[in-house]
Design brief:
Length: 337
Amino acid sequence: MTPDRIMKLGFFSTKSYDRTYFDINKDPRHEIIYFEARLMEETAQLCEGLDGICVFVNDIVNRKVIEYLHNHGIRLILLRCAGFNQVDLEAAGDYQMKVYRVPAYSPEAVAEHAVALILTLNRKTHKAYNRIRELNFSVEKLIGFDLNEKHVGVIGTGKIGTAFCRIMLGFGCKVLAYDKYEQEELKKLGVQYVDLLTCISESDIISLHCPLNEETKYLINSQRIQSMKDGVMLINTSRGGLINTKDVIKALKHQKIGYLGIDVYEQEEKLFFEDYSETILQDELIARLLTFPNVLITSHQGFLTHDALDQISKITLDNLQCFIDGRPCDNEVKAGN
Ligand code: NAD
């Protein structure tokens, strides 16, 4: 492979902001075709004639798709996101496909969004905004609680979890954390590592910052919810599958869970990032979630800051250059990572 190889790339699930940042940052010699479609078996034929593809969180890069890519001469999958649960890495290895991700672009962007969910649910600014637009200046039923001195449980203290811990310490919270790997730097700041059960049972607010994998699927289920404090606030900005949505709905109905803030949802690939405002909602779980006054849902926008989008495009393009140069790259993901 020559160092100056020119690539024709297909970007899937693209929005206007993807074009904006990639067009600014890319080497003009490379050609990018932006598809709005998600990559899946049904759309894989769009990859014909490409040298590589770039996908996002809800594309489906399963064995059949990878086999199709391989049969069409493609050896490169760029992920413009951190999580890689949407790619069958075993299959990628079997078909000599190089897969790269963007492990850290702005952990603060996602951590700050988790905090936005907490503050909105707690202080009900979304309700106040709507009330005041209708000249309703009543503050009845807008009572929140002080974050100062509350216990905040953080599950997963990687890059985003660490940024989140720092912010919550700044609010005066007592931060309890659970992770397989403890970070000395966080301990020095006052974070207390505990086992998962203690983290879940002693926290007023629980925020999930671990990846989705076989071990963490439905980490939050009925059994674990039972050990939580009554009226707990649950925040998920990681991946929808960490939470058993049916179990959480039951707990919301019984007021065991007092607040739910989610930026991700188990079945989000059928809904998120698109405008369905003129269609009939078929997803019964999200329909039920929308009926609760203490549930706040955002559509996977934790990463959506100028800073993060700029970094995502630059790191994705650096990964591309590593592939072209045949250089080893820390951002490459393989089965077993
Ligand atoms: P990271 O790899 O830096 O950290 C993940 C942490 O989770 C690690 O410290 C790891 O040891 C820990 N972990 C793994 N398995 C665990 C388990 N069973 N229990 C507890 N901890 C466990 O990842 P990150 O950059 O901090 O991202 C975290 C997650 O956030 C990603 O996996 C991704 O799903 C999600 N994310 C969401 C958005 C968004 O827009 N909402 C954007 C980026 C990332």
